[in-house]
Specification:
This protein is mainly α and 79 residues long. The chain is 72% helix and 0% strand.
Length: 79
Amino acid sequence: MSDAPDVASLSYEQARDELVQVVGRLETGGEPLEASLALWERGEALAARCQEWLDGARERLAAAQNGSLSSAGSPEDAE
């Protein structure tokens, strides 16, 4: 895993795809203990990165919705 890219540099899709691979490797159970621990830690970091992307997307959607509500004005403004 030492040649793996820095988690902070990954897109959502890259982090998600690698997380799926990590989970698959952990589920097969064929890794030695040290490798399993390293995979688990990498998986935790990847899951956190995915959550960061999702939180950011949620914030952007909320801002866009608030912006469209603000620009639409109230029904009284139309009179």
